[in-house]
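Reply to dn_fold:

You asked what the input looked like. This is it:
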Amino acid sequence: MAISAATHASRPWGLSRLRPYPPAPPEPFATVELDLDTQLAVYRDEHGGVLEMGKHGTSRGTETRPQSTNVDSSNDPDPDQDNESD
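and this is what came back:
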């Protein structure tokens, strides 16, 4: 089946739905530096003062391995899973 030139010239329908991203809010800091000792970013305001940018937590899965079997004596393929975050 040959593809006509008109097919190549048509504009994908999704492009008509695109809009520019809204403007981003201003950043609450003026500069960012890397602390060479800790390898962490240090955020500073326009006067050079250090800003606290908040903490981030850690997350780890707490999947349990099936110890019991189901009716047909095979391991349960759907073990319990959840996430633990601080």
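The mean pLDDT is 76.
Hope that clears it up.
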